[in-house]
Amino acid sequence: MKDLLRARTSLKEEIEILLNNQVKMEAEASAKYLAMASWCDRNGFKHSAKYFLHQSDEERGHMLKIFNYLMTVGGTAISPEVSGVKQEYPTFKSVFETALQSEIAVTQSINRIVTAARKEEDYATENFLQWFVSEQIEEEDNARRAIELFDVIGEDGTGLYVIDKAIGKIGSDE
Predict the structure, then answer these.
(1) Distances in whole angstroms, Cα of residue 166 to Cα of each of 9, 75, 157, 159, 173
(2) How far is CA 137 from the centre of its chain?
(3) Nearest to 40 by CA among 26, 28, 50
(4) How far apart are CA 33 and CA 92, in angstroms?
């Protein structure tokens, strides 16, 4: 049966597994950002909460984009299970440091899939993933910009309030 299923797609099993792992990673990122939004909201950082809600939606969109690609090319898309999402953070800044670490991990994962697709001469998947390669440049830049605000503005006095307001503008045309 497995050979028959493999015959209906040119997608190599290794690439299908990597793409399904990426679907799970994007789902986990979406869930992490929801938790970060909740933490920010509970701690009075309303603009940052809104920022993370938007990020969560984006990550879910990325997940669905890959999920749909898998179905389109005849692969088996697997609906991911997400558990163990961290809900608490020691500081406002640590939320953004965690977000940057997550974006870097996603970039590295996308790069590994592109490399594997190239090795397997799967040009359709490599081409599909170029959108994600470009997207990750923006995602990492936004995460770094958020952390830079802590250094530029400082956390003393009204600093956290000003940082929260500035975070609300990241990714917009300002």
Answers:
(1) 47, 42, 16, 10, 13
(2) 12
(3) 50
(4) 14
> How far is 122 from 70, CA to CA, in rounded Å?
13
Query: Which sign, positive or negative, has the C-alpha torsion 31, 33, 36, 40?
Result: negative
The mean of the pLDDT values for the chain is 93
Give the integer Cα–Cα distance in Å for 131 and 139.
12
Q: Measured in Å, how far apart are the chain's first and last C-alpha atoms?
A: 55
Give residue 172's pLDDT band: very low, low, confident or very high (50, 70, 90): low
Nearest to 66 by CA among 24, 107, 29: 24
Q: What is the pTM of this model?
A: 0.91
The token pair at 36 is 């970060």
Name the H helices within the chain. 2-7, 13-42, 46-72, 92-119, 123-153, 159-167
Cβ(46)–Cβ(37) below 8 Å: no
**Cα dist. 155→67, 147, 150, 161, 162 in Å?**
41, 11, 6, 9, 9
Phi first, then psi, for residue 119 (nearest 5°) are -60, -40
Enumerate residues 6+ apart whose C-beta is below 8 A from 108: none
